């Protein structure tokens, strides 16, 4: 299995190999950690916005793993090789300061936020191993690591982000000389709610969300088409800026 985008795309898994439930799909996804040489960097949430759901034709969010090999420095360059989705997604990302282990009762938003250390601006560059990712279905996409591919994490904000209304944050994205405006409400209604969704998704899977791991909560703007030579920048105002180039 390739960590990055493979040169050859799959039409789909053979019937006998297809996961029959989300639990089976996540069990398959978990094996990807065996192919990483580093500690798990964190988690992504796919399809937290209506636009994101339409992009891959699913009806709700899904969790995926961010491997350390797939993280690009802020201001760095992302390879376009093998990438068929070719989109960039500006996102709110949280780094955990305290473990959230599995337990019987769901975590509240307050409990999850109390476990957060820092807030960061981020850009995700998703992709899929399936040629027809629109028709693959949620279980196959989860097994395919929820379209996780490359990830860019900005510096932790120095602002008092806990006092900000992240629902109404409107980051400005710059791409090919044009500007686009994202909106925090596009992320499951509130990036903090999306983060809590992830904590509880892992809780139900028996997986601990660990201190030090980063959770990126899904795009706050419809996925933006990219091509080689582009530079994508996202300005989250007082939260900070993040950028990445493509080749």
Computed Rg: 17 Å
Order of helices and strands: HEHEEEEHEHEEEHEEEE
Average per-residue pLDDT, rounded, comes to 93
Number of domains: 1
Largest sheet: 8 strands, mixed
Low-confidence stretches: none
Report the portion of residues in β strands.
Answer: 25-35%
Count the E strands.
Answer: 13
- Work out the helicity level: 10-25%
Characterize the overall form.
Answer: globular
CATH topology: Fumarylacetoacetate hydrolase, domain 2
CATH superfamily: Fumarylacetoacetase-like, C-terminal domain
Structural class: alpha+beta
What does this 3D model show about the protein?
This protein has 5 helices and 13 strands. It has one domain: Alpha-Beta Complex (Fumarylacetoacetate hydrolase, domain 2). A hairpin with a 5-residue loop joins strand 12 and strand 13. Helix content is 17%, strand content 27%. It has 247 residues and is an alpha+beta fold. Strands 1, 2, 3, 5, 6, 7, 10 and 11 form an 8-stranded mixed β-sheet that branches. The mean pLDDT is 93.
